[in-house]
Design goal:
single chain, about 280 residues, alpha+beta, 6-stranded antiparallel β-sheet, 8 helices, about 25% strand
Length: about 280
């Protein structure tokens, strides 16, 4: 199955550097190009592996953490993509997470410093989408029923929502929304780091898939994200519009990857809007 992919990453004018990174068909941001705006559009075959990372630690520390995680994913990519069964796929991802966490812990000890990175990862096969995450970078799926957040936010605010201390609406502005409870870069004596394994989705049910850092979701509402994903003619247009919206009012760097499966008939790849569906309903009647 063919997949269309659009990746965007841009440094906000309020920041001097980009602590985000990504893995997209073998491509990652490098120290040479990471502070330049990335526009990357391509097509590939399944199985397909993509991921976004948001580094923490400030300046070069966050950059280093997300770069290590992105490069390490390249080393594990073949094993993850070749693992067809759910359990094998999950085991390959968790091995990548464990070994990358060890790399970061070793570097933190050597540098006598602390840093880390979030992770949102998706493996797309002919039949399913398997997603994993650590931190507050997200995975969204646009389906016939609407936009659905697949990933789980590993933040203090999200924990408060589960406990009933905050409502979901209150969590959107609560200061604890930026305090991560899980990420890559945790010393082994604290606890064992494992990525959240999310329920697999059937490929046929997903119109478009979005992976993004919180530079997008901090400033662009889910309803706005859904509208862009639903009405954009291409995944490239959708990714560009999302980044532009986030940069207008946000202060953080923004990275996103938008994917969709391609059909043999190019005209069939245009995603219907709500208006299109209404028109089709009237024609059927």
């Amino acid at each position: 199955m063919k997949i269309a992919i659009a990746a965007r990453s841009e440094t906000n004018v309020m920041r001097s550097n980009n602590e985000d990174n990504l893995y997209c068909v073998g491509m990652t941001l490098t120290p040479e190009n990471r502070d330049e705006a990335l526009v990357f559009d391509t097509e590939t075959e399944t199985p397909c592996l993509v991921a976004v990372f948001d580094g923490m630690g400030g300046m070069a520390k966050g950059e280093y953490a997300s770069l290590v995680a992105a490069q390490a994913l390249g080393d594990h990519a073949a094993a993850i993509k070749d693992a067809d069964e759910d359990k094998a796929n999950a085991a390959a991802v968790q091995k990548y997470v464990a070994e990358t966490n060890q790399l970061l812990c070793r570097a933190m000890r050597e540098k006598a410093s602390q840093f880390g990175t979030t992770l949102a990862l998706a493996v797309i096969t002919d039949s399913s989408i398997r997603s994993y995450n650590l931190g507050d970078s997200r995975v969204y799926a646009l389906t016939e029923e609407g936009l659905r957040q697949i990933s789980v936010d590993h933040t203090l605010a999200a924990q408060k929502v589960k406990l009933g201390v905050l409502t979901p609406e209150q969590a959107l502005t609560d200061k604890s929304r930026n305090k991560l409870s899980l990420h890559l870069g945790v010393f082994e004596d604290e606890f064992s780091v494992m990525a959240e394994e999310l329920p697999p989705l059937p490929c046929a049910a997903v119109h478009r898939l979005l992976l993004c850092t919180d530079g997008l979701t901090e400033k662009v509402l889910d309803a706005e994200i859904e509208e862009v994903l639903r009405t954009s003619a291409t995944v490239g247009e959708a990714a560009t519009r999302l980044v532009e919206m986030a940069l207008v009012s946000g202060k953080d760097n923004v990275t996103c990857i938008v994917l969709e499966k391609l059909k043999d008939d190019p005209a069939a790849n245009r995603l219907p809007t709500f208006m299109d569906r209404d028109d089709m309903d009237r024609e059927e009647r």
